[in-house]
Design a protein that fits this description.
The complex is a heterodimer of chains A (about 350) and B (about 220). Chain A has about 350 residues and is of the alpha+beta class. Helix content of chain A is about 60%, strand content about 15%. In chain A, helix 2 packs antiparallel against helix 8 and helix 9 packs across helix 12 (about 345-350). Chain B has one domain (about 1-215): P-loop containing nucleotide triphosphate hydrolases (Rossmann fold, 3-Layer(aba) Sandwich). Chain B has a 6-stranded mixed sheet, sandwiched between helices. A 4-stranded antiparallel sheet of chain B has the order 2-1-4-5, covered by helices on one side. The interface of A and B includes residues 264, 267, 268, 346 and 349 of A. The structure holds adenosine-5'-triphosphate and magnesium ion (MG).
Chain lengths: ~350, ~220
Amino acid sequence: MWLVRELLFHRKQHYLNVVANAMAVFLVLIVSVLSDSLTRGINEEIGSLGLDVTMLQVYGEVNDYWFEDFCREFDIKKATLYYSFQHEEFSVVSCNEKLYELFEPELLKGRFLNETDISNNDNVAVVGFDAYEKNDRKDTVEINGVEFRVIGVLNRSENNLFVDYDSSIFIPIGYDLSTGVRNHSYYYAEGHYAEAYLENIFGENGYMLINQSSLLKTTGQMSELVRKVLLFIASVSLAVSMTGMINSMLAGIKERSYEIGIKKVMGASAFDVYCEFALESFAVFSLGLLIGVMLVILTCWLISSAGIIDIHVDYTENARLIFRLSLVGFVCGLYPAWRAGRITIMDAIRKV
Amino acid sequence: MIKLVDVCRTYHLKNQDVKALDGISLEIPDCSFTAITGHSGCGKTTLLNIIAGYDRPDSGLYLYDGRLVNDYDEQKMTDFYRHEVSMIFQEFHLLPYLNVYENIRLPLHYQKRRRNDKEMDAVLEQVGLRGYGRFYPHQLSGGQKQRVALARTLVSEVRVVLADEPTGALDRENADNIVKLLKGMKEYGMTVVLVTHDEGIAMMADRIITLENGHVVS
Ligand SMILES: Nc1ncnc2c1ncn2[C@@H]1O[C@H](COP(=O)(O)OP(=O)(O)OP(=O)(O)O)[C@@H](O)[C@H]1O
Ligand SMILES: [Mg+2]
């Protein structure tokens, strides 16, 4: 196939094109793959909490008589309330045994607060792993002058959005040891919002609802947005490289009008020349595409083997992207090719 | 048969018009060997370009086998280049990235015909380039390149061969060789039109047309 020979003969004209195309393709694909993997990572992280729990946080002093009404009104079966305040570097959570039912934290040793502890208002506490360490693994802990006996230690758990278990100390809800502002928080499961109801009680700014699935949705939307912006930027670089390619193809055609002239003298039709040039620019683009794809594969391999993030490649999605990219490359080659086809023998002769 | 009737061709420059051809009428019969001579700038190349169909006259008729070439559309023009006329230039006009075989095959490629290397060898033998099939243009001398161009024309089996000073860049010996080959093309039923400055070469033709300032003087 002498077209290959022709391409090789003019390879100097194409070197930079191939590099530019490869880089643009690399950018587009790597953005697509990485943002995909990152989003997936974040979603898995949040999803792995595995809880469809809503947290309601109430600011300021409130009586809690409304809580049972609320649970009845919205038919909430699993719910609990707790107060939390900061004591030294620990967050002290006064709660009842239902908190355990909701979150089922893993115990390293001992047990969680039970119904008897709560109703007796015993001086017992369950401590998170970090709190336990900071307290020098002692089996008592002192909070605002009151001494509690440690009856359980929680395993280290990094995955929790709502409470930092690890540096928490859980004590029976009957104790009111806070000196400053208390947080009233209520966990209730099953993701009810009941916004209007709550607004009625606490006022517009008196409460905050945090729901895991809505959080998931928000992060999803955010990362989708980031992905789109990045893809857009990458597409701009693609457009730049395409413009460069068209430009250099056009310049090349001017230089090669001599050859085009010979071909036409030998009986090449405008369409023949058009096809040859379209093929050539497509070949150049495909080479760039190939190099770009290989670079992406290499980069992904490096990243995942370095363990920075888990690369997860959606093959059909990216195949579609590659197909679209090559379509762009093909279309961009058509205009210079068309111009090449239009060069007449007289143009070519005059050039020499 | 080629017939021109009152053909004019004017180049429009910025501040003046150059009348390159001013009412040319001539007839070139089939299977003839015609030489066109004249001073530099008298319009020889312009005339040849019109006969080849690369350029079109501003006025006047160009009849080829009784058909009016003036009216040919692009498709017909391409067919005309493919099967009817071929030009041999002073500067050889070979594709630099193709070897001799491939250069010779170029017209066949566009005519969608096929020939194997053996048949190519026969043609190369004819122009005295046996064994040069795998050479590239930059490895050939000027005379050899011109002979490749001739071989290419022979292979294309066109009916009219136009040559615009094909010997201009060659020494005497090579030049005579080329002209002999051109003259030999008559035997293949080709019509040869040769533009030359060289009196001696012109004398080898069946007929000499002399141009002066865009007119035929003899
Ligand atoms: N593309 C052009 N644009 C403007 N004027 C042109 C062009 N080509 C040729 N001419 C003019 O037309 C006239 C005839 O040119 P042509 O090339 O036909 O001469 P020629 O007989 O082939 O000369 P030579 O023997 O030097 O090759 C000249 O005066 C030239 O200046
Ligand atoms: Mg000339």
